[in-house]
Amino acid sequence: MSFRATVESMSKIMDEMGITELDLERQFLFGVYRKHIHLSKQQGTATVAMPNFPVASESKNTNSEPTDTEKAINGYALKSPMVGVAYLAPEPGAKPFTSVGAQIKAGDTVALIEAMKTFNPIKSDKDGVVKEILVTDGQAVEFDQPIIVIE
After folding, report:
1. CA distances from 9 to 27, 42, 48, 49, 148 (A)
2. Which long-range contacts (CB under 8 A, 24 or more apart) does 28-31 make?
């Protein structure tokens, strides 16, 4: 099997299993080759369904008020396609990509996420008005974490 076919096969398996990162290590006579690969999908492509497994450290909230993470989001939540650090402006001190109340169109960049020293533009996949920005500049974000709410 060729290297390209191997990578394509591994990519399909990773998509099916919801895996986004892979560490490769190969030993040669003259040393060890290590490679860390992070795959992420572009906005607007098919989404991989991730099973919801209970986390052992989760505690049940017996209060009638929901916690911050449980609050319902009214509108469309644009979610992070990867783990990284979110930036709301193209560089420090620059004007932010968007603000609450701003009209945006599909394809507009609304944030950057830095992952593995690469700045990945996060683009809106629908037209609307920015209702809420759920992250702060320089905040670490998780995969599938809501970033911006669009109405």
Report:
1. 22, 19, 16, 19, 34
2. none
What's the predicted TM-score (pTM) here? Answer: 0.53
Residue for token pair 């944030």: 111
Taking a C-beta distance cutoff of 8 angstroms, is the pair 52, 58 a contact? no
Q: Are 109 and 97 in contact (CB under 8 A)?
A: yes
Number of Cβ within 10 Å of residue 58's Cβ equals 7
pLDDT band at 59 (very low <50, low <70, confident <90, very high): very low
Q: How many Å apart are CA 77 and CA 89, to the nearest integer? A: 19
Enumerate residues 6+ apart whose C-beta is below 8 A from 124. Answer: 43, 78, 104, 105, 106, 107, 108, 110, 148, 150
Please, how many CA atoms are within 13 Å of residue 83, restricted to the half-sphere of its CB? 7
